[in-house]
Amino acid sequence: MKCKNHSKSGLMIALFFCVLSLSLQAPEPQTESLWGFEVTFSNRSLRGQVIHGDRGDDATFLEAMRRLTEASDRFVNAIRNQQEQHARVNLQQFPTNNDYNCSIQTAAVFPDKAHKLTFPDGFWMLIAIDDGCLEVTAKPVTVEELKRQEPRIQKVIFDTAYSLGLDVVYVGGGHLHNDFNRSFRSPCLTPQQNAVKFRNSFVYYSLHPSFAQGILSRRIDYTNNPPLAMMLRERNPGSDRDIILPTTRDIDTALGSRPPTAANLNDVIWGAFTNLISEFDRAVAENRWTEAEWGAEALATKINERIYRRFGRLKPLVEGKFNAINLMRVALQGYDFRTQEYRILDGQTTAGHLVADVLFHDAILNHAEALARNGQKVELGGYAHTRPKFSGTSEVLADFDRVVSELKLPARDFADYPWLRRMPEREGARAPLFLGTCRSKVSFVFR
Fold first, then answer.
1. Phi and psi (nearest 5°) for 385?
2. Phi/psi at 127 (nearest 5 deg)?
3. How far, rounded to the nearest angstrom, does the alpha carbon of residue 77 sit from its chain's CA centroid?
4. Do residue 273 and residue 380 come from a single domain?
5. 3-class DSSP state for residue 412?
6. pTM exceeds 0.85 for this model
7. Which pLDDT does position 12 carry in this prediction?
8. How confident is the model over 131-154, as pLDDT tens digits?
């Protein structure tokens, strides 16, 4: 009897330590995405100075090059002046932890000229010229590393730009790049989970055209980065009449008896997208999924070919690039750094604003990964047949609040994040798309 009681107590002790060991197991490793950014600045002297594409005659091109190159040189000289001032203050002994402590290398590759700033910790930023602006890019880093770099980016880039009379470029600036291989070939996930993660993140973004209606940008830019649910402008400015667009035979077939209005074509585009996602979902559900046919890269390529390139001819710019999420660097060959580019964003006005944008997009990827780990998908729901639409400030902001809650973002930090809440109503309605003056109104700080 005593021995029996002992064996029972031994079993209970064993069970206790088994449960304890399970509870103390480390959580599953989470993919840490890498993020790159494009921060752009300009002024009235640089605006319209084209050096790529249709750049006009030689004299016009040379004048554009002169203005942009001089602006780039002034930017870097201002950084050098800061280095000299800090050196004098510190009796010629430059402090190694100073934000301006960097080496500066200049590379001239016609027609571009770039200055590379390399810091002691290995972080680097590149100041280059582009059409009508200076563009600053940087070493791709994780969210946590970007937070650490925030004070440096603010001082060296934003403060320098503003001191030179440069301001933010809203249209065509502010884009974020996510390292596709790092995010969707993650060793933390199986190949199928990686594909479901990409599917989830892309569907999630596409279900919220509100991001382009006053959240990440002040209004939709149909030329550069329209959301997939609203790829075509449906009304001429100041008119209630829907726009009629020329079509092709296969698009006419998809329209059926409906007239080729932009609204009807947007319905066709959304239907083609949801059909593609449904094909992916059936392949997973029926155990027909293969990485070659439906892996993350294969799905990105299908979206680029069957949606962007097929319907892109209806837009002013036909490349797959000019959409809310640009997949060209994944779907096409020849790109060293394979990224998906998030283009909806307006130009960031501070380093804190930049960090907030990256945090927001990183949270979408984390949400997509958490669902994929559990075999779950972002559901199309009722939007499988009717594309998502939001109208009016209240609907857009209500959708954003739902997103903040769903992504488990700190509501207090993101309370003033949408452009609709940051900009005065009169300015938000008619704010210029190229140059802005609200840099002092955005002060996100995340720690």
1. -120, -20
2. -105, 110
3. 30
4. yes
5. coil
6. yes
7. 55
8. 888 999 999 999 999 999 999 999
